[in-house]
Amino acid sequence: RAKKAGGNRVEPFRPAFRTFGADRLQIETDLRRAIERRELSLVYQPIVRLQDAEIAGFEALMRWDHPKRGNISPAEFIPIAEASDLINQLGLFAFDKAASDLMDWQMQTGDLPVFVSVNLSSAQLLNNELYNDVRAALARTRCEPRKLKLELTESVVMENPEQARLILSKLKDVGLGLALDDFGTGHSSLSYLTRFPFDTIKIDKALVCDGTDKRTVLLRSVISMARELDMQVVAEGIESEEDAVELGNMGCEFGQSYLFGPPIGYDSVLRLLKERFPLMKRA
Ligand code: C2E
Ligand code: MG
Ligand code: MG
Ligand code: MG
User: Fold this and answer.
1) Which residue has a Cα nearest atom 2 of ligand 1?
2) Among 245, 257, 265, 273, which is disulfide-ready with 238 (CB 3.0 to 4.6 Å)?
3) Using CA atoms, how far apart are residues 170 and 196, in angstroms rounded to an integer?
């Protein structure tokens, strides 16, 4: 069957998460220069309200246009950055850029009822400078903290729960939103929902697209639990209109997937915002 579809062509097996040896070292060296060479950028994927498909916010996702290799996926370069000190620089670049992009959009549309969510790695949480760096970026961009969210995965908080809880409550006090990302993958512990000051959970696409008959039960209980805890719920990777309706009926408020729109660049976001929020446009 596979042969019929693909002819005689054999796709090379290229594992995204495993770049070894010299190659990996080269990527790390190149990554070290990528920011100043302006090879890194952000794209933004809409997060929509399931009820009316209105845009509630965007997730900022990093892209690397490598001069020789072309686009390298964050699934490949983020782990390399995490294994070195580079992730702090990259993470700060993303936070600062996302905040300043949002301010730029608002300069052209007026105040917007949307947030921008930025991913945060575990190594960043352990960096003593994180808090000051975040404060400095907020001061520099003058972005309202309540319009920004940080997305963290469970492994981030698991690695060092005490330190994580301390820094997260400080960031929360600044006014930033905190989302628990990729919920439902691997080693989930429900206690994270209550022990850390998260206001949002993002249900991983693996759970949203789970093909088994336990899917509905799992989703229903995660969503109702989140709501009892006064948390917002974003379902990732919704593939069909049907699933969107089903999740909405379960009480899930938001969705983020190719169905609602792929990640897009700065200009496309601006166009989209002007179209969706025309009344906020200034003369
Ligand atoms: P994530 O934070 O869970 O981001 C969601 C990923 O799912 C993105 O992949 C997005 O493009 C993809 N996605 C969105 N809708 C769909 C869908 O309908 N189906 C499928 N199959 N996938 C969908 P992307 O951009 O390749 O990023 C991968 C991961 O890399 C992110 O997962 C995040 O963990 C990490 N990452 C990306 N940017 C950053 C960053 O600035 N900092 C850090 N620390 N990590 C980042
Ligand atoms: Mg994320
Ligand atoms: Mg995610
Ligand atoms: Mg992920």
Assistant:
1) 119
2) 257
3) 11
Q: Which residue has the tokens 């792929």?
A: 262
Listed in order, strand segments (DSSP E) in 39-185 are 40-49, 55-66, 70-72, 115-119, 148-153, 177-183
Distance of alpha carbon 8 from alpha carbon 275, whole angstroms: 46
Is this complex scored with an ipTM above 0.95? yes
Amino acid code (one letter) for 264: I
* Phi, then psi, of 94 in degrees rounded to 5: -65, -45
Ligand nearest to the CA of 204: 3
Axis crossing angle, helix 86-109 with helix 74-82, rounded to the nearest 10: 130
DSSP, collapsed to helix, strand or coil, labels residue 21 as helix
The residues facing 62 across adjacent strands are 42
Amino acid type, 6: G
Q: How many CB atoms neighbour CB 13 within 10 A?
A: 5
Instruction: Quote the DSSP letter at residue 187.
Output: S
User: Which tens digit of pLDDT belongs to each residue from 238-279?
Assistant: 999 999 999 999 999 999 999 999 999 999 999 999 999 987
What whole-number distance in Å separates Cα of residue 253 and Cα of residue 250?
9
Cα dist. 154→60, 158, 252 in Å? 19, 6, 20
Say if CB 197 and CB 172 are below 8 A apart: yes
What phi, psi does 90 have (nearest 5°)? -65, -45
Q: Distance, CA 63 to ligand 2 centroid (Å)?
A: 13
Task: Give Cα 245 distance to the centre of its chain.
Answer: 23
Residue-level pLDDT at 279:
72
Ranges of the chain with pLDDT below 70: 1-20, 186-189, 280-283
